Amino acid sequence: MHQALYRKWRPATFDDVCGQEHITSVLRYECEHGKFSHAYLFCGSRGTGKTTCAKILAKAVNCEAPVGGSPCGKCPSCLAIDAGSATDVLEMDAASNNGVDNIRDIRDEVVYSPSMLKYRVYIVDEVHMLSTSAFNALLKTLEEPPSHVVFILATTELHKLPSTIISRCQRFDFRRISIPVITERLLKISEEEGIKIQKSAAQLLAKLAMGGMRDAVSLLELCAGTRREITEELVADTVGISSRDSTAKLVRALSEKDYETIFSEVAEVVASSKDIAVFWQDLLSFYRDMLVIKTAKDAKKYLDLTESEAEQTEAAANLFGKETLIYHCKILEQTLVSMQKSNSSARLLAEMTLIRMCDETLDSSAEALMARISAIEDRLDAGIYSTAPTAPSKPENTSGAEKISEKKTEKAPEIKPLEVPAEAVTAGKKRALPYWVEAVDKICKNDPSLTGFLKSSKTYRNSDGNIVIRLDSDFAASMIKARQSTMNTLVTVISSYEKRALTTANIVFEISHENDIIDEGLENLEEIIKATDL
After folding, report:
1. What is the pLDDT of residues 453-479, one digit of tens each?
2. How far apart are CA 72 and CA 406, in angstroms?
3. What is the spatial distance between Cα 379 and Cα 196, in angstroms, rounded to a whole number?
4. What 3-state class would DSSP assign to 317?
5. Would you state the pLDDT for residue 380?
6. Where are the beta strands (DSSP E) in 142-215?
7. Signed CA dihedral, 230, 232, 234, 238: sign only
8. What is the chain's mean pLDDT, rounded?
9. CB neighbours of 69 closer than 8 A, spacing ≥ 6?
10. What is the CATH number of domain 244-366?
11. Among 98, 340, 403, 519, which residue's Cβ finds the most Cβ atoms within 10 Å?
């Protein structure tokens, strides 16, 4: 009968366990010196070696000739445990045996001495699935078991265990195995099994396994079923993910507002029967890598990428500002949640979101606004645009000789810096104060009775430097002015934002009218953005 690769290559000794040296070194020492505990708790994500280490530990405590704390694998005890014929080693899956009766059976059995081994070992997998009554039944036995009994509990969800159980065990936290360690293991298995695989493909499999060795080996076996050399493209087709090249192509299309390529890439994902949600996660992961490159000094430390992938991602990251990347990440994440919860078309959600990412004017959120402002700042910092007036042209009555002279010395025309219209910078004398919403929150927090008057108010700074507060009615103005404590609060809060000392005389109240609108600056921003478009 065929044996799965992950079972065939399951480690038999502590030395064979990959990526958990901080645990295996302690277990090896305890077994070598006979100082092992009566109860162990192995916790960590799936495929990191919890059950494997539990089986090795069960053999090590019963081995007749241990080698450096690891089981020899040759004595009758080791052979019996490997064959599954040792009745003194009991494996129980708490997911399907989670009742109090199952634990009572164990409690009744532990009083008897082992039938053929030195120790009776109970391995309880997914122990967090036990019921409350089952935990209560286990508690006393776990605290003071007979000297010939060892409990090994394994769980992927430590937070579901009662603290009384955790405190009675020697706890070990299994870490996610690093990509280089998994890659090396996959290459070794491939060599022994005669599987042709490229190193880059092994790295991709290791990355897809997300720190789990068992998942990585299972994916290797899945790809090896094609009987072809395993490449990155083969892995992507077999697992159903988008290649990094196609993701990078889509990201470039977003920066260039290339709608044709965007729709083409989405159509390709749909046509290939790949899950759009998985494709979306790949895109979000690519954006995460770009954001790391854009913000971290030592980005390679936080990226699991090959040299070529790192260069490709860095080139893509240079196409966006930090604010734009954050904005894109937010709407990508929101759309992913919608894809997972909504019954609507995932393709439609994907295409709509990608169009929004191309054109921030379609989104009125603060993140979209910051992305647009960041784009303007980047262009100005690069010296592409200027608000300076152009030099006056030469008068029309230039003499013919001068014209001929100019024609002889004429050079190739220079690209002049684009001018931002002056009206786009200076328009709107009644400019709303940017801090007013935040200031109102502080004022109303000190005096909640003002909430109804100030929440809909507008404010601006007039030509005299006074702060003008525009309210909806005379009644609102009279109620605020009538209370000295309220006026003092207004002066204090506004002074802190203005960074200058104000008095009540600097606070002016006006009543709003339909045709008298305070310019909040969005119109000017639109004009500036239009003026800076290439």
Report:
1. 887 888 888 888 899 998 888 888 888
2. 96
3. 49
4. helix
5. 63
6. 149-155, 170-173
7. positive
8. 81
9. 14, 27, 28, 29, 30, 31, 32, 60
10. 1.20.272.10
11. 98
Strand-strand pairing, 507-511 and 149-155: unpaired
Write the CA distances from 157 to 128, 148, 164, 502, integer angstroms: 7, 28, 16, 58
Of 78-92, 285-299, 386-400, the one with minimum mean pLDDT is 386-400
Query: What mean pLDDT comes out for the span 82-94?
Result: 88
The per-type count for the chain, helices as H runs and strands as E runs, is 25, 10
Q: Which CATH number is 179-239's, of 1.10.3210.10, 1.20.1330.10, 1.10.8.60, 3.40.1550.20?
A: 1.10.8.60
Half-sphere exposure of 193 (CA within 13 A, CB side): 22
H or E stretch at 385? strand 385-386
Compute and round to an integer the Cα radius of gyration of the chain.
Answer: 35
Average pLDDT (98-112) is: 85
pTM score = 0.62
Euclidean distance between CA atoms 512 and 493, whole angstroms: 23
Amino acid letter, 133: S
Count the Cβ atoms, other than its own, within 10 Å of residue 340: 10
Question: Per-residue confidence at 343, pLDDT binned at 50, 70, 90?
Answer: low
The encoded tokens of residue 207 equal: 């990355």
Q: Which amino acid is at 194?
A: G
Most confident residue range from 301-305, 394-398, 425-429, 448-452: 301-305
Question: And the tokens for 349?
Answer: 């959600």
Task: Say what the pLDDT of residue 173 is.
Answer: 94
> 476 is written with which tokens?
């609102």
**Is pLDDT of 126 > 50?**
yes
Per the model's pLDDT, the better-predicted residue between 372 and 476 turns out to be 476
What does the pLDDT read at residue 79? Answer: 92
Residues 403, 406, 410: CA angle, nearest 5 degrees = 140
Residue type, 308: S
Return the closest-CA partner of residue 217 out of 197, 237, 240.
197
* Token pair of 523 as six digits: 């119109």
Q: Which amino acid is at 303?
A: L
* The token pair that represents 337 in the structure block: 């949640």
Whether the CB-CB separation of 213 and 177 falls below 8 Å is answered with yes
What torsion do the CA atoms of 100, 106, 110, 115 make, to the nearest 10 degrees? 170
**Can you give the length of the chain in residues?**
534
User: Do residues 155 and 127 lie in contact, with contact meaning Cβ atoms separated by under 8 Å?
Assistant: yes
**Residue extent(s) of CATH 1.20.272.10 domains in the chain:** 244-366
Q: What is the pLDDT of residues 232-249, one digit of tens each?
A: 888 888 887 777 888 999
**Residue 431: both structure tokens together:** 């400019």
For residue 43, the 8-state DSSP code is E
What architecture is domain 436-518?
A: 2-Layer Sandwich (3.30)
